[in-house]
C-alpha cells in the first residue's frame, strides 16, 4: 500500500460568477482557500489549479533532485526551484507548457554531472511523470 493524500474542492454557482474553496484537511494548510474564474483567468486574489500544480511540481522536483544528488555523492547545500505552468486557451483550456528553473549550491560537482542528475530528477519525479502529457523544460544552474 502506498501513501494517500487528499484535498477537497467546493464550488457554488455558475462558472463566471461562482466561487470555490479548496481545503487540505490532512495538513490544514489550506482551509477554504478561495478560487474562482477571475483568480484563474484574471488578476483577482485567490489561487487556481495551475498555481497549485506549479507548487506541487516545484516541491516534488526539488526533493527528487536533492535525493539524486545525495545518491550520486554530492549532497546539496541548497536548491531553489521555480515552476511555471502555462494554461492555453487554444482549442479549449489545456496545460500547454511547464518550465522548471532551478539553482543549486552543490559542493564538489561539475556542470556536466549536475545537469545529468537534474535531468534525471526532471524525468523521474512523480509529478513530472503524472504530467508527462505536458511539454516540460528545465533550466538548471549551478551556483559557485
Question: Can you say what the CATH homologous superfamily of the largest domain is?
Answer: K homology (KH) domain
Class per helix and strand makeup = alpha+beta
Describe the global form: elongated
- What topology, given as strand order, has the largest sheet? 1-2-3
Care to count the β-strands? 6
Organism: Luteimonas deserti
Pfam families: OsmC
Protein name: OsmC family protein
GO molecular function: peroxidase activity
Secondary-structure map:
Layout lengths: L7 E5 L6 E5 L7 E5 L1 H5 L7 H23 L6 E11 L5 E12 L5 H14 L1 H5 L5 E8 L1
Helix pairs in contact: 2-3
Keywords:
6 strands, three-stranded antiparallel beta sheet, alpha+beta, GMP Synthetase, Chain A, domain 3, three-stranded mixed beta sheet, 144 residues, 2 domains
3D architecture notes:
With 144 residues, this protein is of the alpha+beta class. It has 2 domains: 8-41, no CATH class; 49-143, GMP Synthetase, Chain A, domain 3, CATH 3.30.300.20. It is 33% helix and 32% strand. The protein has helices at residues 37-41, 49-71, 111-124, 126-130; strands spanning 8-12, 19-23, 31-35, 78-88, 94-105, 136-143. It has a 3-stranded antiparallel β-sheet. Helix 2 packs across helix 3. It is elongated, with a radius of gyration of 18 Å. It starts with 7 loop residues before the first strand and ends with a strand.
Amino acid at each position: 500500500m502506498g501513501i494517500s493524500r487528499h484535498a477537497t474542492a467546493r464550488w457554488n454557482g455558475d462558472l463566471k460568477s461562482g466561487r470555490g474553496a479548496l481545503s487540505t484537511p490532512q495538513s490544514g494548510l489550506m482551509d477554504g482557500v478561495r478560487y474562482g474564474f477571475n483568480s484563474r483567468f484574471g488578476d483577482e486574489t485567490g489561487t487556481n489549479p495551475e498555481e497549485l500544480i506549479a507548487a506541487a511540481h516545484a516541491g516534488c522536483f526539488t526533493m527528487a533532485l536533492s535525493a539524486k544528488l545525495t545518491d550520486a555523492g554530492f549532497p546539496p547545500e541548497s536548491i531553489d526551484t521555480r515552476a511555471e505552468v502555462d494554461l492555453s486557451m487554444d482549442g479549449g483550456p489545456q496545460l500547454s507548457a511547464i518550465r522548471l528553473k532551478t539553482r543549486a549550491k552543490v559542493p564538489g560537482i561539475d556542470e556536466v554531472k549536475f545537469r545529468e542528475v537534474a535531468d534525471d530528477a526532471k524525468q523521474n519525479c512523480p509529478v513530472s511523470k503524472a504530467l508527462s502529457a505536458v511539454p516540460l523544460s528545465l533550466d538548471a544552474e549551478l551556483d559557485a
